[in-house]
């Protein structure tokens, strides 16, 4: 039902977004577009001789669609591992599997148990009820998870801190953090196992009957975006290429301190006018996402570009550089996100990609992926990959599925 609602909103936005009817109108927009929904683009700009213009085409990124398909089996394996490890004796009676995952999902897990004997061992029989536990080799690999979680802790503390620093009041409803805990890599008991360790940084307070996670200590040294860190690594720290003779490349990328990395969908053929608008937008400076949003007028083109930077940074804080559209929308108030968030995302096909594969609409940060593969993986994802590789599947973006529905 949620997916249908998202798709309906998606098509409504495309229908209600007026095209840029003139070059003057297009240049007044701070975000480059031919239509307000820039993922729908003409193949070429030619005179139609009074005929109706060609219909826009939705450009899919098939590799990112496949990421959602390929994560299903790894997610199942990791979720079953987590369930088994949560049991008192590290084994689960097969008759109790339905209590853990429900009647429908039970059969998917039973199929996984049968298909991957290198991971799951089934014992029992005669007078002993059948049970499932981890195979010996899987147990050996599973012991490495503790080390991966230790390596994750400073990363989680830093990212959680930055998440609060992005908000206008340096606080976020605790339920919102719980909503994205698996995307951040937080343990499901982080309120008891992680937050009490850092009272100088985090506190939980009630505001108007609602629990919020508050930031107690601001750290300017980490108020740097992932985009800025990447540019710093490439040696880009000062404005460059601002002369009139320097033109943007056909792939939309521009070498400058205010530019975003672009990756257009296959088949996307921007014309000269589009690239000129994009060049101006890429060169435009904008306030840091870590400055309070209340200081800026949303009508200011620089403030609208800043919103793109906020979404970019929010996705960068997740393990797999992706979130569902409903998870992003949950931070609408705390980050002063636009009311038409979906439209803001589809305006930037070079930066974000929205797929409706899987149970929910998911937003990807495109630059984080090389085809099917996530480029940089945190210790927990590296562990997940190693564990899932016991099934014979390698080089995949396995997810932390402990909290998957």
From TrEMBL:
InterPro entries xref list: PORR_domain, PORR_fam
GO molecular function: RNA binding
Signal peptide: none
Pfam families registered for this protein in UniProt: PORR
Domain PORR as annotated: residue spans: 59-394
The protein, known as: Protein ROOT PRIMORDIUM DEFECTIVE 1
Source organism per UniProt: Prunus avium
Gene assigned in the entry: LOC110761124
